[in-house]
């Protein structure tokens, strides 16, 4: 997944230079479709911190987060600000080795 998308740039303009590199991932409250197979950011002892899945942003591994207002402010080994790609965008990769599992988020925000 790459943000901002081409559609977002077309709709709102190319303001990628104003993006600092703070990344928030949120999950809106709602029914858990299949809690047994769902991985996510749940707070202390969750599946990200346990290593059940990984996130990279522009090839930097997410090593933790700070939970703020129901969202996770992601951090990597060097801090909270993720460097932009040459084109000013951010590429996200989510992966897990757990079979029959998935990661569910409702929004990703780049500030």
How far do the termini sit from each other? 16 Å
Shape: globular
Q: Largest sheet, described in full?
A: 4 strands, antiparallel
Q: Main sheet: which strands, in order across?
A: 1-8-4-5
Q: Strand pairing plus helix content: what structural class?
A: mainly beta
- Approximately how much beta-strand content do the residues carry? 25-35%
**Rounded average pLDDT:** 80
Multimerization state: single chain
What is the β-strand count? 10
Task: Provide a brief overview of the structure.
The chain has 111 residues and is mainly beta. It has one helix and ten strands.
Question: What's the topology here?
Answer:
Blueprint: E1 2-3, H1 6-12, E2 23-26, E3 38-39, E4 53-57, E5 60-61, E6 64-68, E7 71-75, E8 90-96, E9 102-103, E10 107-110
Parallel strand pairs: 3-9
Antiparallel strand pairs: 1-8, 2-7, 2-10, 4-5, 4-8, 6-7
Walkthrough of the structure:
This protein is mostly beta strands and 111 residues long. The protein has one helix and ten strands; from the N terminus they run βαβββββββββ. The protein has one helix at residues 6-12, and strands spanning 2-3, 23-26, 38-39, 53-57, 60-61, 64-68, 71-75, 90-96, 102-103, 107-110. The protein has a four-stranded antiparallel β-sheet, with no helix packed on it. Strands 6-7-2-10 form a four-stranded antiparallel β-sheet, with no helix packed on it. It has a two-stranded parallel sheet with strand order 3-9. A hairpin with a 2-residue loop joins β4 and β5 (60-61). The radius of gyration is 14 Å and the shape is globular. Mean pLDDT is 80; it is low at 33-39.
């Amino acid at each position: 997944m790459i943000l901002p998308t081409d559609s977002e740039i077309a709709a709102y303009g190319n303001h990628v230079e104003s993006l600092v590199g703070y990344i928030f991932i949120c999950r809106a409250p709602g029914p858990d479709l299949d809690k047994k197979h769902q991985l996510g950011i749940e707070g202390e002892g969750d599946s990200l911190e346990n290593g059940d899945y990984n996130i990279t942003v522009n090839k930097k591994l997410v090593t933790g987060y700070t939970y703020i207002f129901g969202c996770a402010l992601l951090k990597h080994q060097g801090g909270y600000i993720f460097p932009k790609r040459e084109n000013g965008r951010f590429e996200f990769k989510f992966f897990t080795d757990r079979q029959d599992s998935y990661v569910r988020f409702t929004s990703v925000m780049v500030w």
